[in-house]
Amino acid sequence: MSQLKIENLTVVFDGKCVLNDVSFEVKKGEYLCVVGENGSGKTTLMKCILGLIPLKKGSVLFGDGTDGRSVGYLPQQSTAKKDFPASVEEVVMSAFLGKRRLPFYNTKMREKALDCMKTLGVLALKDSSFAELSGGQQQRVLLARALCASSGLLLLDEPVNGLDPTATKQMYDVIKQLNVKGNTVVMISHDIPSAVRFADRILHLSHNGCFFGTVDEYLLSGFGDGFLKDGAK
Question: Which residue did the predictor score with more confidence, 102 or 50?
Answer without folding.
Answer: 50
